[in-house]
Amino acid sequence: MSIAIQFRQRGALTFPAELRKKYNIRAGDTYYLVDMDGVFILTPMKPMVPELAAEIERLRLEAGYSMDELLTALREERARYVAETYGNDEQERG
Question: CA–CA separation, 84 vs 56, rounded Å?
Answer without folding.
Answer: 26
